[in-house]
Amino acid sequence: MTSDSSTPAPYCHQNIIEIDQVSFSYRDQKVITDLSFTAKERDFVGVLGSNGTGKTTLLKMIVGLLNPSQGSIKLFGEPIQKFKDWERIGYVPQKNAFNPLFPATVREVVLSGLYSNRKIFRRMGRADHQKCADAMEVMRITDIANKRIGQLSGGQQQRVFLARALINHPDLLILDEPTVGIDVQTQADFFELIFHMHAHHHMTFLMVSHDIEMIEGYLGKEPRDRSGGIKFHVRHSHDTDCEIPDLQHSLN
Ligand SMILES: Nc1ncnc2c1ncn2[C@@H]1O[C@H](COP(=O)(O)OP(=O)(O)OP(=O)(O)O)[C@@H](O)[C@H]1O
Fold it and tell me: Is the pTM of this model over 0.90?
């Protein structure tokens, strides 16, 4: 089968993030200049760059917390200004810091990953609690499920936020230095888990990291794109068979 502009792209080639000639300034300081980048479904994108090159700023624009000074961003094919399906996106910002007096428990914070704005008051069912238990198990926080989030160490809090992002099985998971402050064993388990999810569960990832060894190990040494000081290392989860124009294979 040949494809032309009138044929829809195979399912797993859909654009998930499209950044088109985006620039951003904080007052007079230009941080990002004319950046274009596209992530397709089932890409794992590792974002590398020195401190201050604008990686976090870029992620904040992608999740709608900052507006580009110029250029445009689309999510799942939709201009970000119109995009409403935020449940499809999990985001773990850099260095979450909780007010020590914040009253929620670990379990409540993880479960809150299932709420959307519309469903905030819905009752949690058995399936929801099972998902929560699974996510806590993976991030090794089951034993602290009833502790208050504000009383945990930074690394424990980060694990809670990762569990919260994973509970919904988002289509796109955006992670800003997710393993900073986490012990080596949990880091290794976490990377193993997300690489598995990428390989087998049809998820797309965008992750800022300073862990060059891990990024290059999984995504290869050569970045696919660069812009300013930011480098994008990309691996698609099934490079060989996704060329087959079979809409089914990514729906298994
Ligand atoms: N809220 C802000 N107001 C003004 N300037 C900011 C703000 N946030 C970031 N900056 C500046 O923008 C530049 C890019 O910051 P950003 O946090 O995006 O970089 P980064 O690549 O994520 O850095 P790091 O690797 O240290 O996390 C830096 O020079 C920073 O000082």
Answer: no
Q: What is the pLDDT of residues 155-179, one digit of tens each?
A: 788 889 889 988 888 899 999 998 8
Vertex 136 angle, CA 135 and 137, to 5°: 90
Measured between alpha carbons, how far is residue 54 from residues 145, 167, 178, 241 in Å? Answer: 35, 28, 17, 35
Q: Which residues pair with 234 in a beta bridge?
A: 45
From 51, 62, 211, give the residue whose CB has the most ligand 1 atoms within 8 Å, as the site to mutate: 51
**Plot region of 178 (φ>0 → left; ψ -120 to 50 → alpha; else → beta):** alpha
CA distance 188 to 41: 25
Q: Which fold has domain 11-243?
A: Rossmann fold (3.40.50)
SS3 71: strand
